[in-house]
Design goal:
The protein is an alpha/beta fold. The chain is built from ten helices and 14 strands. It is globular and about 60 Å long. This is Gfo/Idh/MocA family oxidoreductase.
C-alpha cells in the first residue's frame, strides 16, 4: 500500500516512523503548501516526492491511500476530494467537524467501494483487548473516570491574544475535539453509545473550550471524561465494578499497562504492547484491512467513528460551542 501524507506536524513524523516498521505500507509522497516545510520529514524518511498542489497529489496514479493530518476543519473537504479521486483515506481524529460531514464521507466511500478510516490509535491497541477480556471480572460496572489533561504550548499563545488553530472555532478546535476525544473513543469502544450526554466546559471568550467534563449516562453506570489543554493532570482511566476496579495506566492515549484489583486480592498487572510507538498497531490494522480487502471490518470502524461524532455533536450543543462548519452542514 503506497500512501501520501497531508500535513507536516509531529503526528506525521510519528506515523512515518510507525509505518517504517511495516512491510506492506510505504510512504511515497507528501503534500505541503511550501516544499521547504516538508523537506526535512521527506529527507528523514526517504520520501521521494513532495507536492505543493493538492489536485496533482490526488491525481498521482501510484498512490493508493491518502493520510490526512491537516487542521480539523479541513478533514472533510480533503477526505472528500481524496475519495472523489479514487483514493482510500485515513483521516486524523477528530474524523470530521460534524456528524453530518462524517455521514457524507461514509456514504461516498461505500458508493465508490473505497476504504475510509479515522486515525484514532487507542482502539487498536493490544492492551485494549486485554481490557475487554478482564472487564467481566469486575462484575456490574458502576463508575468510569477518565482524565486526559495536557497543557498545550499553544495555550500560551491564546493567553497572549493570538488564536492558534487548536483554540479556534473556525478550525473546529478545542479540548473536546482534540484531547477528550481519546477518552470518548475508549469508553464507547468498550460500552457503545450512551443514553444521555452532557458537557460542561471552561470556555475562552471566543467560545472555544480549553477544558471540560463530559458525562456519559449508561443504563447501569456513569462515565466521566475530563479533557484539558489549559492544565496538566494525572492521566488515567479507572473502571469500577462491584467486584473490583481496573486501571489503565497513563490514560486513554497510549494505555501503557492494565492494573486489575479484585476485592482484597493483590493487584495484577497486564501489558501486551511491545512497540514503543503505539501508532504501529493502528497502521498495522489499516494495512491488514487493505491487504485482505476486509470492508466489513472497515465499516464496523466507521460505524464506531460515526457514533463518536454524534456524541461530540451533542456535547458541543450542550455547551454552546459553535464551529464555522456547523453553518455548512
Amino acid at each position: 500500500m503506497n500512501i501520501a501524507t497531508i500535513g507536516t506536524g509531529s503526528i506525521v513524523d510519528a506515523v512515518l516512523a510507525a509505518i517504517g516498521q511495516l512491510e506492506n505500507v510505504t510512504c511515497t509522497a507528501m503534500y505541503s503548501r511550501k516544499k521547504e516545510t516538508a523537506q526535512p520529514l521527506a529527507s528523514k524518511y526517504g520520501v521521494g516526492t513532495i507536492y505543493t498542489d493538492l489536485d496533482t497529489l490526488f491525481s498521482d496514479p501510484d498512490i493508493d491511500l491518502i493520510y490526512i493530518a491537516s487542521p480539523n476543519s479541513l478533514h472533510y473537504e480533503q477526505s472528500n476530494q481524496a475519495l472523489q479521486s479514487g483514493k482510500h483515506v485515513v483521516c486524523e481524529k477528530p474524523f470530521t467537524s460534524t456528524p453530518q460531514e462524517a455521514e457524507k464521507l461514509i456514504s461516498l466511500a461505500k458508493e465508490k467501494n473505497l476504504l475510509l478510516f479515522e486515525a484514532i490509535s487507542n482502539i487498536h491497541l493490544p492492551n485494549m483487548k486485554l481490557v475487554q477480556e478482564q472487564l467481566p471480572k469486575l462484575g456490574p460496572i458502576k463508575m468510569i473516570q477518565c482524565n486526559y489533561s495536557q497543557y498545550s504550548r499553544k495555550y500560551n499563545d491564546l493567553l497572549a491574544g493570538e488564536t492558534p488553530n487548536v483554540f479556534n472555532p473556525e478550525f473546529s478546535g478545542g479540548a473536546l475535539m482534540d484531547i477528550n476525544i481519546y477518552n470518548l473513543h475508549l469508553v464507547m469502544n468498550l460500552f457503545g453509545s450512551p443514553d444521555t450526554v452532557s458537557y460542561t466546559a471552561n470556555q475562552h471568550p471566543n467560545g472555544i473550550d480549553t477544558s471540560g467534563v463530559l458525562v456519559l449516562q449508561y443504563p447501569e453506570f456513569i462515565a466521566e471524561c475530563v479533557g484539558a489543554k489549559d492544565t496538566t493532570g494525572m492521566n488515567f482511566v479507572l473502571i469500577q465494578g462491584e467486584k473490583g476496579y481496573l486501571q489503565i495506566v497513563g490514560g486513554a492515549n497510549g494505555c501503557k499497562e492494565i492494573v486489575l484489583r479484585l476485592g482484597q486480592e493483590p493487584a495484577e498487572t497486564f501489558n501486551a504492547q511491545t512497540e514503543a510507538n503505539w501508532l504501529f498497531y493502528e497502521w498495522e490494522a489499516f494495512g491488514n484491512i487493505y491487504a485482505n480487502k476486509d470492508r466489513n471490518r472497515c465499516y464496523e470502524l466507521l460505524d464506531h467513528s460515526l457514533s463518536v461524532m454524534n456524541v461530540l455533536g451533542k456535547a458541543r450543543r450542550e455547551a454552546g460551542i459553535v464551529f464555522a462548519a456547523d453553518q455548512r452542514s
